Every structure is written in structure tokens, then in C-alpha cells.
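Q: Got a minute? One more chain.
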Amino acid sequence: EAVRNYINVMDVARLLSLSAVTNGHQSHLYNLASDDNLSINDLLSIMRKIVGEPFKVNYMESGQSDNPAILLDNSRIKSVYPNFVFTKVEEGIAQTYQSIKEKITI
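A: Always. Here it is, folded:
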């Protein structure tokens, strides 16, 4: 089962903004990664809980080049911004779903 890291786009924007105004840090490569490493099925389970309505999932065969797990080390960025709090994936999905519901009537 494939595992990926999921990060809220607002967290990416906040981290990029912080990096633009923070003085004294050397230039490094940083993994923009949250603390949420989840499988697709974990993500679907969270979505089902938040949406509260049944939906169908179509599974496809993975490609030969698909990586089974992409886990990113965010320790460097967390050491530079120790007070930064990542949005939990559940919270981000709930906010996104609420925003969609407000804009679309079904």
C-alpha cells in the first residue's frame, strides 16, 4: 500500500512567507513535509469520516515506477521554525470540504 506525505497548501504558503522574512539562516534544501505520512486508504478513511456520505473509489493498478513509500524528513525545517505547527490532515480536509459545500449546492 502506497504511503505519501500530505501537507496543507496554507502551511506551504506560511513556510514560504516565513523563509522570506527570516534573517540569519543559511541557504539549504528543505523538505516541505508535514508530520502526516498516510496511505491512500488512510486518507480515504479520513475523508469518509468527514464527508459522512458514501462515495465510490476506483482503484487502479500501480505503475512499475510507482514508489511504495515516499517519506520525507522535515527535521531541518522544524529546527529552523520550532514553533511552526502543521495543520493536521483531518483539519485540512474538513476545512476544504466545508469550503466546497459552501460554494456548491448539490
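A: The first helix runs from residue 9 to 21.
Q: Perfect, thanks.
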